[in-house]
Structure formats: C-alpha cells, structure tokens
Design a protein that fits this description.
The chain has 282 residues and is an alpha/beta fold. Strand 5, helix 7 and strand 6 form a beta-alpha-beta unit. Helix 1 runs parallel beside helix 10, helix 3 runs parallel beside helix 4 and helix 6 packs across helix 10. The protein starts with a strand and ends in a 5-residue tail after the last helix. 45% of the residues are buried. Bound molecules: NADP nicotinamide-adenine-dinucleotide phosphate.
Amino acid sequence: MEPLILNGSKVATDVKEQLKIRVEALKEQGVTPCLATVLVGDDPSSATYVKMKGNACAKIGMESRKIHLPSETTTEELLDVLDELNDDATVHGILLQHPVPSQIDERAAFERISIEKDVDGVTSHGFGQNALGFGEFPSCTPAAIMEIIDYYNVDPQGKHAVVVGRSPILGKPVSMMLLNRNATVTTCHSYTENLPALVADADIVVAAVGKPNFIQGDWLKEGAIVLDAGYNPGNVGDIDYESCYAKASAITPVPGGVGPVTISMLLKQTVDAAEKYGKTNS
Ligand code: NAP
C-alpha cells in the first residue's frame, strides 16, 4: 500500500492561517509581533534563510527586523546587539542565524538571548525547560516534527522512536519531546553501532543526520512512520526517499515536509511570545 504523505506544506499553511487571526487580534491591542533576525557575515545560504524568515513574517502581518553584522564582529559586539534586542520592548523574538563566524563564541551568544525571546529554542534554559516538558519555546525543527505528527494524529505513546542524530537543536530536543509524549526513544549518533538493526525496530524514525539519502528503505520495519528533518543541497533529505517510500506507512517528503513547518513554528512561537509578553502602548 502507498504510504500517507505527511504534507508539511499543508500543515504550515494551516498554522499560518491561524496565526494571521492571532496577529490581527494582537495588532488591535496595539502589539505587532516582531521577530529580530541577526545575521553575522556574508554566508549566502544563511542570508537566504534570513530573507525567507523575514518574508514569512510579512506574509502573516508580522514585523521583522534584520540586523546584519560584518564577518569580523567580535563576541562582545554581538552580545551588545543581543542585549539591545533583549531590552527592546517592540521585539518579541530573537533569532541568531547560525553558524556564526568562527571567532565568535556561538554558545555564549545563544545564552545571551533572554528566555522570553528565545523563540528558536537555542538557550540551555529553553532546552532544559523543553526537556522537562514545560516553559517556553522548543527548538523549531523538533516543534515542527511534533506539529506534523499531531496534525496527522500519530500518537507516539508506547511506540519505539529511533532518532538518528543528537544535535542540540534537533536530535536531542526531539528525543526529549517524543519521550515526554511517552514514546520509547533510542537516540543514535556517529558512534552508534549497528544502526540499521536499531532502525529496523523503530515504529517512528526521525532522520536528523545531515547526510543525503542516508537512511535506507531496507533498514525499515514494514509500516514505519518516517520523518525526515534533513535538508541537503539539491533539495535532498537524510533518507533515501524512494526505498523508504516503499516500506513506510507514512513519510515526509523533501521539500515540502519538515522544512516549511519549521518556519511556521518560528512564526508561531514569536506570536506566542508577543501574546505572553508583548506590551501595549496604552
Ligand atoms: P548536525 O549538527 O551535523 O548533527 C548531525 C547528527 O548526526 C550528529 O549528532 C551526528 O553524530 C549524527 N551522525 C552523523 N553521522 C552519523 C552516522 N553515520 N550515523 C549516525 N549518526 C550520525 O546536524 P543538524 O543541525 O542536527 O541537522 C541535521 C539535518 O537536519 C541536516 O540535514 C540539516 O540540514 C537538517 N536541518 C533541517 C532544518 C529544517 O528546518 N528542516 C533545520 C535544521 C537542520 P555525532 O553527534 O556523534 O557527531
């Protein structure tokens, strides 16, 4: 049987339609949700991502503010910019585009973002809260994966979820989120032995490896649910789509899967922040 296509573009459109209503309501109260994006240097892909995020804000009536700093920016200079944004009541979310140039202490910069504005879920404070299952904003790609499974009524409870990847923004937090939803989670990484055998036992597979076409269909259990967070040059995911399609009961495509939902989660979390912490002029 053909698998259900977990259509991220459709999920993202629905999320954004809901957000438009919330943004309108906020504006009537004198608060325009605003996402500040900070880009350091001239990496063309990062510049494209930042532009896409700004455009996405505009499409739902939000504001965005783009801060573009030169490649030679120091950690201290970046921290000063982040402090200013933290103190600016008209900014509700801060996104520091990464990677930043190597002379910058990226962790220190992430940590400087105030928890109320950490809509990209990059601070250790936000990560800790998310791991414990309360508080502010999770990292956007893990949030997108959870949004997709909820949209399609996939209940992770009791299922074996195998997450391939353990990065702080993706593999680790999505493992925690699945665990908090009562999945039994195995998190794999580059030192994991016999990965295909672990994947073969998975009811849910999350691919977050950063290697094109890495997860093979013949590793999968028949009927597995496959969520591909990967995004590699040439619009290629981290799973081998054709062979996984033949085995899965549900699968995210690339493009049009996790990617568009990730951006909508960034918007949603900025609107959440504006609703929670936004100050009106009155
Ligand atoms: P990352 O920081 O490079 O992490 C990759 C992870 O995969 C690491 O934990 C690494 O293990 C693990 N890994 C590498 N080789 C492996 C192997 N042979 N077997 C098992 N695990 C292996 O990447 P990331 O930032 O998490 O991104 C992962 C993917 O998601 C990329 O394709 C990226 O483009 C995509 N992504 C998409 C979005 C979106 O919006 N859709 C957002 C972010 C990322 P170690 O920890 O041992 O090194």
